[in-house]
Amino acid sequence: MDSYPEDFYRIDGVISPIMKIAYSLPNRMPAGARSRGNFTHQGYIIKGLEKQNKVDIIVQCDTWDMGIDDNNGQVVAFDRTWSKSLWFKIATNLTWRIQKLFRIPNLNCFTTLARFDALRKPLSSYDLVIERLGKYRASVALTAKSLKKPYILFFIADPIFEEEFRGHPVKGLLKWQARNMILFCLRTADKVVCVSSALQRQLENNYGIPADKITVLPNCVDIHKFRSYPEKRAAIRQKYNIGDNPLIVFVGTFYEWQDIATLVEAFGALHDKIPQARLVLVGDGVTKTKIEDLVLRLGLDKAVSLTGSIPFDEVPYLLSAADVTVAPYKKMKMEFWESPMKLFEYMASGTPLITSSIGQISEIIKNDENGLLVEPGDVCALSLAMEKLINNPTLRSSLSQNARLDVERSFSWEQYVGRLENLVNEVLASHDGKIDHK
After folding, report:
1. Is residue 291 within 8 Å of 261, Cβ to Cβ?
2. Cα–Cα distances in angstroms (integers) from residue 79 to residues 25, 84, 124, 348, in the given order
3. In b/e form, how buried is each residue of 48-57, taking b as 16+ CB within 10 angstroms?
4. E-assigned strand segments in 339-384
5. CA distance 187 to 369
6. Res. 338 pLDDT band, cuts 50 70 90
7. Can you say how many angstroms the Cα of residue 171 is from the centroid of all Cα atoms in its chain?
8. At 411, phi and psi to the nearest 5?
9. In angstroms, how far is the first alpha carbon of the chain from the final one?
10. What are phi and psi of 391, to 5 degrees?
11. 422, 25, 43, 54: which is closest to 222 by C-alpha?
C-alpha cells in the first residue's frame, strides 16, 4: 500500500499538497455543525472543502480577540502582542473618552487593530483565507492584504440594508464606517462570492465592484437528505394530527422578509372552501408572536399549528409528508437578494411548492413547470394556487418530479463545492499558483 506524508493527498494518481484554509465566520457555529455539515450554508461548505483540504474555522472570541472554533463549544484564542501593551490601552481609553465627550459612537477602529494583531501570526501559515462578511469586520481582510494571502469574500447580504429592513437602521458615522469596512473587504478580495444575480447587481451598483470580480453561487440542497420518504408519511401525519387531510407546510425562520402573514390569510380563504385543510408552520423568529396572534384573530387555531423549531433531521420527513409547501416573501424596495435554502429543500422533497415571483426565485421556478409562482402579498392568488394543487394530484406529481430533477441537475452541494474549488484554483492561479506550505 502506498504511503504519503500527512500533508499530501492523492487524486487520479497525482500527489498534491493539502491546502490549509482559514475560513472566517462572523459568528461561532453551533456545536456539531461542522461535523454534520448539513444544516447551515457554512457547514456544507466546510464539509465539502475538508474532503481534500485542512479547514480551520476562525471566529471572534470576544470584543477584542480572535481564535479557532473547535466546534465543541470552545474557542482557542490567538495570542495578541502590541495590542495588549500599555500605550495601546492608553490610546484606546483616551480616544473613547474624546468620542463620548463629542457624542461620537465607537467606530470599531481599535477593535479592528486588536484583531489584526491576533490574526497576523496565525494566518501567515494558511494558504488561503475565506471570509463570510460581517458588519464592522475588516480585520481579516486587513490581515490577508498585509500578508498577501489569497482572499475570497462571501457576500451573502448587505448588512447595512438588512439592519434597515429589520427596523434597526445604522445611521450617521456608524453607517459611514460600516460602509467603508465593507468596501475595504470587497476591494481587498480576489473574488467576491454572492448568492444571486440580484445581489451581484447590488455589488456593482452600490459598491462599484466590477462584474468580473464577482461569482454567483446560488444556495443548494443535500439531495440525499432531502427527498421523498413515502415510508414516513403515515407516522409524520399522525404525529401532527393531520390524518388524511390536505396538508400545507412552511418551514423557515420567522424573519421580517418572510411573508407568513399573507400565507395565513390565504389559508383562511382556502379553509372556507376546504375546511379539512391543515397548515403547519415550522420555525421561530421575531415575527412568530404576531403570526400566532393573527391565527387566533382569524379563528384558525384548530386548523393551523405553529410547532416552533423542530430537529433538523425531521424536516425532510415533514416536507415529504405534505401535499403542498409554501415559501412566501414580501416585496421590497430593493431587489430581493436572497437565494433561499428552503426553496431548494422544498424542490428536493418530492412535494410541489408555491413561492413568490421575486428575485432569483423567478429565475429558478418556472410557473406550472417545477412549481407555482404568485405575486408577493397577493392573498387571493396564493389561496387559489393552494386550492389548485390540493384539487389536482396529477399536477402535484408533475411539479414535484420536475423540481426534483432540477435540483439533481444543478443544485446539489457536491456541485456547489466543485464550483467553489474551481474558483479557489482560479484565485491561486492569479497568485501564480504558489502556495508556501509552512
Report:
1. yes
2. 19, 10, 14, 45
3. bbbeebebbb
4. 353-356, 372-374
5. 40
6. confident
7. 25
8. -130, 35
9. 27
10. -90, 0
11. 43
Cα dist. 182→61, 113, 132, 160 in Å? 21, 16, 11, 9
Where b means 16+ CB within 10 Å and e means fewer, 185-195 reads: bbebbbbbbbb
Q: What percent of the chain has pLDDT above 70? A: 91
Residues 6+ positions from 397 with CB-CB distance below 8 Å: none
Instruction: Using the structure block, give the residue that is written with the C-alpha cell 494571502.
Output: 149
Q: Which amino acid is at 428?
A: L
Residue 8 has pLDDT above 70, yes or no: no
Phi-psi region of 243 (alpha: psi -120 to 50; beta: other; left: phi over 0): left
Partners of 22 in beta bridges: 56, 129
**pLDDT category of residue 32 using cuts at 50, 70 and 90:** low
Cβ proximity of 94 and 60 under 8 Å: no
Residue type, 407: V
Indicate whether 43 pLDDT > 60: yes
Reference 237, options 357, 323, 158; nearest CA is 323
Higher per-residue pLDDT: 6 or 279: 279
Query: Whose CA is closest to 211, among 192, 196, 195?
Result: 192
Joined grid coordinates for residue 230: 413515502
Helix (H) or strand (E) holding 56: strand 53-60
CB 332 within 8 A of CB 359: no
User: Residue range 28-44: average pLDDT?
Assistant: 62
Confidence band for 17, pLDDT divided at 50, 70 and 90: low
Q: Give the pLDDT score at 2.
A: 41
Q: What is the mean pLDDT of residues 241-270?
A: 94
Task: Answer whether 317's CB lies under 8 Å from 236's CB.
Answer: yes
230 Cβ neighbours under 8 A, 6+ residues apart: 320
3-state secondary structure of 298: coil
The model's pLDDT over 69-83, given as tens digits with 9 standing for 90+, comes to 876 668 899 999 999
Contacts of 84 (CB under 8 A, 6+ apart): none
